Amino acid sequence: MAGTILITGAGSGFGKEVALRLAADGHDVIAGVEIIAQVSAVRAEARERGVELRVEKLDVTDPGDRERALDWDVEVLLNNAGVSEGGSTVDIPAERLRRQFEVNVIGPILLTQPLARRMAARRSGRIVFMSSVAGLTVDPFTGAYAASKHAVEAFADALDQELAEFGVTVATINPGPFLTGFNDTMFETWKEWRDDPAERLFDYSALAFPHEQYDPEPVYATTVRVLLGEDRRYRHLLPEEMEPQVREQLAAEWGRRLNDGRRPGLVQKAYDIAPATPVRAS
């Protein structure tokens, strides 16, 4: 057994499914959810699936919630909580930028700090960050989200080096475009902005997430293996078929030149693609 596994952001998406699968296999799992309404909802789903799952309110931006987590004797931590703010860098309101980093970066690191100290004192532990391919590359209209995931990548890399001598391992999961609803709602956050739409550079009602999206099963399966220590790699780019493309994209940055004034292909695709477009099976 892996010991007590804490998963943040387990009220939906990757976190919830991974928590339920681990609990179904008999592991001691704590599903941390952002709001109290999600506690009963996730508990109900666990009952429907016939599994025992401990569900706790854990808003990673709430100091009180983070302090409560210190009583849970966590041996494996999955920092999965996250939000995604879509929009051009010149248009996103200040409070939305701050929220992006508070949820995706500051809160998770402040939660990780005391838990990592306890792992170091035990000389054992595992910390996993649900990062993103956006922690390695950047698309138009995802600058805020990608910036937060680039920050996550930096912290994860530093922690991996700093905690090695204390018996604590660190890993990242880097999902690409998976069809969970997360990417599509990122392109709807503009509806909550309290700004003057006339001053925006773009009409966001005309834009959508500019990628076809995959079935999320590989993320669930891989994350479970990483949390249980069955997969010893540091980085996990998913789906694996995207890895050559991402490597090529990163290498191309060294020879990148100034833009030529024409609209890039991915910007145009954001206008052309329909939301929630799946990848066609080959």
Instruction: State the distance separating the first and last CA atoms.
Output: 38 Å
Return the string of H and E elements.
EHEHEHEHEHEHHEHH
Structural class: alpha/beta
DSSP strand count: 7
Low-confidence stretches: none
Query: Percentage of helical residues?
Result: 40-55%
Task: Write down the oligomeric state.
Answer: single chain
Content of β-strand: 5-15%
**What would you report as the Rg, rounded to the nearest angstrom?**
19 Å
Q: Specify the number of helices.
A: 9
Biggest β-sheet description:
7 strands, parallel
What overall geometry do the principal axes of the alpha carbons give? globular
Enumerate the strands of the largest sheet in spatial order, edge to edge or round the barrel: 3-2-1-4-5-6-7
Mean model confidence by pLDDT = 97
Domain Ketoreductase: 3-181
Family: Belongs to the short-chain dehydrogenases/reductases (SDR) family.
Organism: Streptomyces koyangensis
Protein name: SDR family oxidoreductase
Provide a short characterization of the protein structure.
The chain is 41% helix and 12% strand.
Overview of the molecule:
It comes from Streptomyces koyangensis. Residues 3-181 form the Ketoreductase domain. Belongs to the short-chain dehydrogenases/reductases (SDR) family. The protein has nine helices and seven strands, in the order βαβαβαβαβαβααβαα. The chain has helices at residues 13-24, 36-48, 63-68, 94-122, 143-163, 182-186, 217-227, 243-252, 265-272; strands spanning 5-7, 29-33, 54-57, 76-79, 125-130, 168-175, 235-238. It is an alpha/beta fold and 282 residues long. Helix 1 (13-24) crosses helix 7 (217-227) and helix 4 (94-122) runs parallel beside helix 5 (143-163). Helix content is 41%, strand content 12%. The model has no long low-confidence stretch (mean pLDDT 97). The termini are far apart. A seven-stranded parallel β-sheet has the order 3-2-1-4-5-6-7, sandwiched between helices.
